Amino acid sequence: MTPDPLHLSPNIPQGGPGGGARPPGPAAGRYLTALGAILHRELARFLGQKSRLVAALVRPLVWLLVFAAGFRAALGLSITPPYQTYITYETYILPGLLGMICLFNGMQSSLSLVYDREMGSMRLLLTAPLPRGWLLFAKLLAGTLISLLQCLVFLGIGYAWGIRPPLAGLLAVIPALLLTGLMLGALGLLLSSLIRQLENFAGVMNFVIFPMFFLSSALYPLWKMAEASPALARACALNPFTQAVELIRFSLYLTPNWPALGWTCLATAIFAAAALYGYDPARGFTRAKG
Amino acid sequence: MSLKVENLSFSYGPRKALDDLSFALAPGSFTALLGPNGAGKSTLFSLLTRLFTAPKGQITIAGHDLGQAPLKALAALGVVFQQPTLDLDLTTRRNLLYYAALHGLRGPAARGLADEALATLSLTDRADTPARNLSGGQRRRVELARALIHRPAVLLLDEPSVGLDAASRRAITDHAHRLADRGTTVLWATHLTDEVGPTDRCLILHRGRLLADAPAGQIAEGTTLTDRFLALTAETA
Fold it and tell me: Is CB count within 10 Å lower at the N or C end of chain A?
């Protein structure tokens, strides 16, 4: 008799192999079940890591409470739409810092995707009997909801600090934040399909996060930048992050900004399509790993 | 046939990983895929699980062409990967339920299947233990239970005994044989000859090509499988 330290039971259920447990009903149910499970898992993981929420909030709070206070005196801001009056620098950079939360989250999801790939759990996800696009969308949506959650907490802290956009603006900004989260999450997804190893991730900081954040209207209005350098101002205007920040800014003050909405949607579509292409099993990232 | 691979070729740039590979596995059979490191086993498993696709060749799982009907083919497949893929923060049961949901199973039906899979692998008392607190052998069992939760027609195991002691390895191979006896088609990839029994069908893969396809005892030809395996892979080295 062979010793069995694993205590495996010889009684295997007779349900029979062959997809016997395939759920009945329409395919839509299976899609939603998987989506729900992925969202639940990612949100539970995020909420289980209290330190991650704190870390995610400390960064923009330092900018808001320290950096902005220091720069308030140095920067004079004239009245520009959507603002109806002179505003403090803290008020100006609030939308940019919401964008920053989404930007760092998008890159963090990218990092965790590369990690998942190296660790093998990405394999498990991608072998599920659902279209790869749907599985990636579920991951993307989970990351976006986590961004939104952080943004709402940050807005609450800002409100308590005295930065008070119209209350209706706090609702109107939600779709803008969701779109921004999707755009930057899709960019993160795209980057994760390009990055072969975790070690290369530092490059993302240098070549994606910093240029995207500093070459934008997050910290200074474009007209201010144009005074310093028209070329840099043009680069800022072309940056999809600028468009997303402006969308957040205008939504927060209940003012439509159709060009910003259009450009953000377009950038989201391009990043998502490129990410899907990057994860295509016929040409995808997984090849190099074997 | 439960699993059929026809004329499968795959290259990483100029390096051929699989070269015109063909084989077929009958329903309810146990087959060992034996090959040294770098033989192409992992590439074959990546292609069988559609992590990437081959430009040449065809894979059929439970009658479904993986290229034409990938979702139906994948639904009939259970996989234990070489790398650990458990979510260490989740309990054993939640790991199973997460996987079940990826297969569209939820609610009481999924819970029932999870409990059944846990019982089969004697993990019921560990159902609410976080995966982080399980031993290496227990984690492997959870991965096996998870791969079986949707009752797949074909079970792929990619070097599932890595990191386990000899007795645990024997227990898990015995269990895989029992699964085959009950109708599951099992493909067991390994580089360890002692995991292959004399009556097991054995495919020897080396440099992307099949060097042998016969019961292990027959391949051994009066010597040991290890000696024969070393000789075969040395001849073509």
Answer: N
